[in-house]
Amino acid sequence: MKRIILTTTALIGLLFLTACGGEDEVQQVVEMDFAMDTLIEIRIFYMDDSRNRNEAPNRQLALEAIEYVRYLEGVFSRFVEGTDVWRLNHAGGEFVEVSPYLVDVLHYSLYFRELTGGRMDVTIGAVSDLWIFEANPELGIDVRVPTEEELAIALPSVGADIIIEGNRVRLGHPDTQLDLGGIAKGFIADRVAEFLRDAGVEHAIVNLGGDNVAIGGRPDGMPFGMGIPAPGTIGMVDGHIGVALVENASMAGSGIDQRSFELDGVLYHHILDVDTGMPVDTNKMSVFVIAESGILSEGLTTIVYTMGVEAGLTLVESIPNAHAILIVDTGRDDGWQMLMTTDIGFNQTDYGFILNFN
After folding, report:
1. What secondary structure letter does DSSP report for 279?
2. Are the beta carbons of 25 and 219 closer than 8 angstroms?
3. pLDDT tens-digit series, residues 54-77
4. Cβ atoms of 43 and 204 closer than 8 Å
5. In what order do the strands lie in the sheet with 344-349?
6. Residue 270 to residue 144: CA distance in whole angstroms
7. If you write DSSP's letter for every residue of 15-31 in order, what string do you get?
8. CA atoms within 13 A on the CB side of 164
9. CB of 282 within 8 A of CB of 315?
């Protein structure tokens, strides 16, 4: 049986407990930093005796993995002058030679565009730039809803062609701005996991702000266990409603409350409709997708928000080894319900539920 867990950072310290008894025990090194506007975390697990002689080389690998994240951020950030994405966004529709990494991600973006009939489109950057979802009073930054006039100017640049010739790329509209926020972290998590595997790591978790890639399971033969948060509690220690188990898979999770604000009684969240430039109309409070790669799980998480519940579940089920969990607002006093693709097993325990699949 292949076992999958839905992951968030918050419960990792509680669920990845050191094995008890015996000369060899499960050890771990943890390195964290802040990059790509989010918390990044590398956890490497290994068996060792009480002298823990393998700590130093594993910690060095974790530190190198974080440096690799920073290097890739220098390719994909659209806010830092000189990155590949920044140069492409400022090229006015002319060809730009870019990293093969960016070419790979753009090919994925075209796949997602076709898969969704254009509902997920990385050329939405000019529209997303009009919004401010997170206030920062210290810097004098407040939340912002764009005007109809601003949206009317920006929307024609959405859906532009992305022309790829080898490592040369150009955008088919001079005002188009790429926003890779829905897939780049997953791709970077994949590359970091690949780096660790190539270095001989067999048991690890790469977590880039909620985009997780699991290398193997625990070194004592147990799967990794991670908490599934209730709506509104992603990233918090309290509020988890269950656990699932994972080995060699990726997971991405998102809640509309993560980057959102309420103004005049209206909730505005960061997942935008490519036709209107406004937040998509959805009753989904949280979406979690498990897949074979980080870029696929992250991309599908966004895609499911842009679709109806049944359509989203059906789409995920059509993709090999992909699975989805949706927490949906019922509009009733019971608040919410959890819906899953049909291949996920559900077991109720005294401590919550456990998810697995065949």
Report:
1. B
2. no
3. 899 999 999 999 999 999 999 999
4. yes
5. 224-229, 240-246, 352-357, 344-349
6. 12
7. HSPPP-SSS-EEEEEEE
8. 16
9. no
Q: How far apart are the first and last CA of the chain?
A: 5
pLDDT tens per residue, range 79-92: 999 999 999 999 99
Residue 257 vs residues 262, 267, 331: alpha-carbon distances, Å: 10, 9, 17
How far CA 14 is from CA of 8, 38, 226, 237, 342, in Å, comes to 12, 21, 9, 9, 29
Tokens of 111: 């796949």
Of the candidates 211, 227, 229, 233, the one whose C-alpha atom is nearest the C-alpha of residue 299 is 211
What pLDDT digit, counting tens, does each position of 320-344 carry? 999 999 999 988 876 889 899 988 8
Contact call for residues 235 and 257 (beta carbons, < 8 A): no
Q: Which residues contact 254 (CB under 8 A, 6 or more apart)?
A: 210, 234, 271, 286, 287, 301, 302, 305
For residues 355 and 104, what is the distance between their CA atoms, to the nearest angstrom?
32
Reported pTM: 0.90
**Triad 167, 168, 171: Cα angle to 5°:** 130
DSSP 32: E
